[in-house]
Amino acid sequence: MTVEYLLFDLPSDHEVEENVVTECDVIRAIVSNKGQGKKIKMVRATTKTAFTRERRSTQSVKYVHLAGHGSKTGLELIGGSVDWECTAEQITKLVRRLKGKQRRVLCISCCHSKHAADKMSSKLKGYFTATYFFHKDNIRFATAMTVWSMFYHEKTLDKLHKKKIDREKIVDRVNKYLGAKSGAKSYDKVLAFRTI
Questions:
Q1: The whole model's pTM is what?
Q2: Which residues, in sequence order, are bridge partners of residue 128?
């Protein structure tokens, strides 16, 4: 089977020390329960050295999920930080350039993910067709888990983001759900989408 889901799991010290289930563990479970478990590759790293280690790339990836702790300048790992430009380079080393009408999305799950999307977009051209990220700078773990659980439960490979309605449907459903849970009559935008 080919790899279609590439998950970057970059846990913090408390997640490692307390043996906490990570966001990527949950995503793997959701995708596996949809019968796609053999199509997942997980890259887990806690240091810059481990994150930047050489790995083999693949053409077939359709979803790349980056889960970690972010700042305006980059990813915060236990063993240091990696700026967003270096992060983009590491991601593109594991996926090949898109050919023809191929599509691939990047989901950025960390604080300051909007900054990440902005800083990485030029290096991601040709490798990704779109990115999903959080609209707000700071995001709580529970919110991230809810967003991505809904996202991967709803999204299918045949509806990657071919039509505007497909991408807006999942973004709107996530945002409306979170707004309703907060008791607000109108909701703040939590999840955002942008083509690359």
A1: 0.87
A2: 125
pLDDT in tens, 62-117: 999 999 999 999 999 987 899 999 999 999 999 999 998 888 999 999 999 999 99
> Cα dist. 131→27, 56, 150, 180, 193 in Å?
17, 22, 16, 25, 6
Specify whether the CB–CB gap between 46 and 10 falls below 8 A. yes
Q: Report how many helices (DSSP H) and strands (DSSP E) the chain contains, helices first.
A: 7, 9
Q: Side chain identity at 118, as an amino acid letter?
A: D
Distance of CA 1 to the CA centre of its chain: 22
Which residues, including other chains, have CB under 8 Å from residue 124's CB and lie 6 or more apart?
Answer: 88, 91, 92, 106, 131, 196
∠ CA 191-194-196, nearest 5°, is 145
Q: Residue 189, class by beta-carbon neighbours within 10 Å (0-12 exposed, 13-18 middle, 19+ buried)?
A: middle
**Strand intervals (E) in the chain:** 5-9, 40-44, 63-67, 69-70, 74-77, 80-83, 105-109, 130-134, 191-195
pLDDT tens-place string over residues 136-173: 999 999 889 999 998 888 776 555 555 554 555 777 77
CA distance 177 to 184: 10
Measured torsion, CA atoms of residues 178, 131, 154, 41, in degrees rounded to the nearest 10: -120
Two structure tokens written together for 135: 């609209």
